[in-house]
Amino acid sequence: MKLRTQVGIIGGGPAGLLLALKLFRSGIDSVVIERRTREYVLSRIRAGVLEWGTVEQLRNASVNARMDREGLVHDGCTIFANGKSVHIDFKKLVGKSVMIYGQTEITRDLYNELDTLGVLIFHGAEHATLSDLDSELPSIGFTHDGDKKRLDCDFVAGCDGFYGPSRQAIPANERREFEKIYPFGWLGILSETVPVSEELIYSGHERGFALCSMRNPSLSRYYIQVPLDDKVDNWSDDAFWNELALRLPKKAAAKLETGRSVEKSIAPLRSFVSEPMSWGRLFLCGDAAHIVPPTGAKGLNLATSDVYYLHKALCAYYRHGDSQELSRYSRAALERVWHAMRFSWRMTTMLHRFPERSEFENRIKASEIEYLATSRIGRQMLAENYTGLPY
Ligand code: FAS
Ligand code: PHB
Predict the structure, then answer these.
(1) What is the full DSSP assignment across 73-141?
(2) How far is the CA of 214 from the centre of ligand 2 (A)?
(3) Residue 111 catalytic?
(4) Helix (H) or strand (E) holding 25
(5) Are 264 and 188 in contact (CB under 8 A)?
(6) Which of these is catalytic: 22, 205, 298, 365?
(7) Which residue in the list 195, 249, 293, 294 is annotated as catalytic?
(8) How far is residue 210's CA from residue 299's CA, in Å, rounded to a whole number?
(9) Does the pLDDT of residue 145 top 90, yes or no?
(10) Per-residue pLDDT tens digits for 250-293
C-alpha cells in the first residue's frame, strides 16, 4: 500500500512527535512511523529537566497546559562534593529557571494532542527502511499489521533514537562519528516518596555520583553511579537507599524518605555525535544523531532544539521555496550539540568517581568544586549552560 505525505518521520519519541505537531501547526503534513506500541513508549522513564527553551517550544506548540499546571519551576540546584554544598542560583546568576516535568508526560501530552488533530501515527511499524534519500522523492518502507507499506515524502526526519536505522542510512564514508564511553552507569529508581529536597542535588561523593531529582511533590527520582557491569538484580531497594544516603549531605540523608521502587533500571553513559546531521533529503533529530551523559540534563533538550531548527528550515522551504536553511540545518544544530556535549562531559568528569583517576586528576576535580564555591563567574557559567544556551 502506498501513502504520500510532505515529511515522513521515523520515531515516535519526543523529537518525532514534537516535530509532527510543530509541522501541523505550520500547515505542513507529516506521518509518524513508530516501531513500538504506544504503551511501550509511554512506559519508558527518562528525562526530567526542561531547559526554558524547551518550555517555550511546548508553549508555542500549544501542548503546555498540563506542564504549566503540574510542572515544577526550579530556580536553582545544589552541587555537593568534598563535604561542601554549593547552591547554583539560576535566577540570580543568569535570570533563568528550568522546569521539572517528566519526558514521559511530555510524550503523553504530544500523543494526545496529535490524536486530537488527527495526525497519522503508525505504532508497531516494523522493518523501516529508507530509500532514495538523494532524490526528490525519498520514501520509507515498513510493515504494519502484516502489510507492506511505502510512504512517499518530500523529506525524511530521522527521529528514531540511537538504535534506529536513520543514521545508518547515511553512507559510512559520508559520516564521522565521535564517541566517549564512560566506565560506569546510572542506577535509577522512581519511588512514591516525598523528594528529599525542593531542588535537585548533584552529589560528587568519593563513593560515587548520586542525584536527587523528582517528578512531582510525591514522586521522587534518584540515581547512583554504579560499575558498568552492575545489574539491577544486585540492588534491593534497601541496598539502594543505604548507598544513596551515604552519598548525600548529612542533613539530606537524615530526612531521606525511603519506600518501594516503582521503576528501577541501569543506563550506560556515553557521549556520541554523528556528523553530518543531514544527507540528501534525510534530516536527523535527537538521539538519532547524538547522545549525552544525563549529568547535564541535555538529552531531551537537544532533541527539542534540533526540532526547532528543522521545523524553521522546513517552513522556509514550503512557504518561500527557500532551501538555504535546510542546507544549513546540520551546521546550526551541531554547533549547539557540541556546546551541550562539552557541558555534559564537564559535569560528568567533575562529579563522578573514575576508578583509574590519578591523584593529580582527583586534585583537579577538587579544585573545580572549590572554584564553583568561590567564584560567582564559575557558578554563572554552570547556570548558563544548565538552563540552556540560546537557540
Ligand atoms: P527516543 O529514543 O526517545 O525516541 C526514538 C523513538 O524511535 C523510540 O520511540 C523508538 O521506539 C523509535 N524507533 C527506534 N527504531 C525505530 C525503527 N526502526 N522504526 C520506527 N521507530 C523506531 N535525557 C535527559 O535529559 N535526562 C535523563 O535523565 C535521561 N535519561 C535517560 C535514560 C535512558 C535509559 C535513555 C535511553 C535516555 C535518557 N535520556 C535522558 C536521554 C533521552 O531523554 C533522550 O535524549 C530522548 O529520549 C531523545 O528523544 P528522541 O530523539 O525522540 O529519541
Ligand atoms: C531526572 O530527573 O531524571 C534527571 C534530572 C537531571 C539530570 C538527569 C536526570 O541531570
Answers:
(1) EESEEEEEETTEEEEEEHHHHHS--EEE--HHHHHHHHHHHHHHHT-EEESS-EEEEEE-TTSSS-EEE
(2) 8
(3) no
(4) helix 14-25
(5) yes
(6) 298
(7) 294
(8) 18
(9) yes
(10) 999 999 999 999 999 999 999 999 999 999 999 999 999 999 99
